[in-house]
Design a protein that fits this description.
Elements (H helix, E strand, L loop, with lengths): L3 E7 L5 E5 L10 E7 L4 H16 L2 E10 L2 H14 L6 E8 L8 H11 L6 E5 L6 H13 L4 E5 L13 E5 L1 H14 L11 H14 L6 E6 L6
Helix pairs in contact: 1-5, 2-5, 3-4, 5-6
C-alpha cells in the first residue's frame, strides 16, 4: 500500500505504533481505485471517509464506482452521492446497475460477466464487502471480487446492521473529525429514502467510527475499519 512512516501514535497503554501512510505518490500516473457496493449506500457507509482522504492526499487517475442493486429513486440517490464523493478525481466512472435487492446470489452468472468487464482496468486498490458479512448480496459481491481480482490490494469494509455481524478489523484508516462529519452529512443528505429506517441516523455512523477510532488509538478519535486478507510490503 502506501509508504511506511515512522510516525509514532501514543496509545493508552504507553506503547507506539508504526503507521502506514495513505500516500501513494509512487504511482507515476496517479492511483486507480475500484469501489464495489451491493446496495446504493454501502460504499459510502463502509469506506466513504477513506475515499475522501485518498482523493485529498493523492492524485487519483481513475475512480470507478459500481453499485449492483438499485431502483429508480435509490439509483438517483446513489448517483448523486457518488458524484460528491468522487470530487477531485481526474476521471471517474459511476455505474449503477439494477439487479434486484436480495437476489444477487441468483444473478451470479450475469454479475460475474460484469466483473470480467471490470478486470482489464487493473485497479491499484479495491474496496468491497467483508467475507463474513451475513447479507447474501454483500457476500456475493465479496466472493466475486476475490474470484476476479486475485493479485490486488483489497480492502473489505463493514456495514452495521440488524444481523449483528461486525467483527474485528485488522486495518484502520484514521479520519479527522471534519472528514467523518463530511461523510455523514453527505449520506444523510443524499439518501433521504432511508430516513425512516431505524438504523439510519448520525449516531449509527459516528458510533462505529468512534469505536474503530478507539481500537486504532486514533488521535483524531475516528477511524474506519477494514479486513485485509493479504498484503505485500
Amino acid at each position: 500500500m502506501g509508504s511506511l512512516e515512522r510516525r509514532k501514535a501514543e496509545t493508552a497503554y504507553g506503547y507506539c505504533l508504526i503507521m502506514l501512510s495513505l500516500n501513494f505518490a509512487g504511482r507515476p500516473n496517479g492511483l486507480k481505485i475500484l469501489c464495489l457496493g451491493a446496495h446504493c449506500d454501502d460504499i459510502e457507509i463502509g469506506c466513504g471517509g477513506t475515499i475522501i482522504r485518498l482523493i485529498k492526499e493523492n492524485d487519483i487517475e481513475h475512480l470507478r464506482w459500481v453499485v449492483f442493486t438499485s431502483s429508480g429513486e435509490r439509483g438517483d440517490e446513489a448517483k448523486k452521492s457518488a458524484e460528491f464523493f468522487a470530487q477531485g478525481c481526474k476521471e471517474k466512472e459511476i455505474i449503477i446497475k439494477r439487479f434486484k435487492d436480495g437476489f444477487l446470489p441468483y444473478e451470479a452468472r450475469e454479475i460475474k460477466n460484469l466483473f470480467e468487464d471490470l478486470k482489464p482496468s487493473n485497479p491499484d486498490l479495491i474496496f468491497t464487502h467483508c467475507r463474513s458479512d451475513l447479507h447474501q448480496d454483500h457476500r456475493t459481491v465479496c466472493e466475486l471480487t476475490w474470484n476476479t481480482f486475485r493479485s490486488h490490494l483489497i480492502f473489505e469494509y463493514e456495514i452495521p446492521k440488524y444481523d449483528g455481524d461486525l467483527g474485528s478489523p485488522n486495518l484502520f484508516v484514521t479520519l479527522a473529525k471534519e472528514v467523518a462529519e463530511r461523510k455523514i452529512e453527505t449520506i444523510m443528505k443524499c439518501f433521504q429514502s432511508q430516513a425512516g429506517k431505524q438504523w439510519f441516523d448520525r449516531e449509527t455512523f459516528f458510533g462505529l467510527m468512534r469505536i474503530r477510532g478507539i481500537e486504532s488509538a486514533s488521535q483524531t478519535k475516528y477511524a474506519e475499519g477494514f479486513y485485509v486478507r493479504k498484503t505485500v510490503m
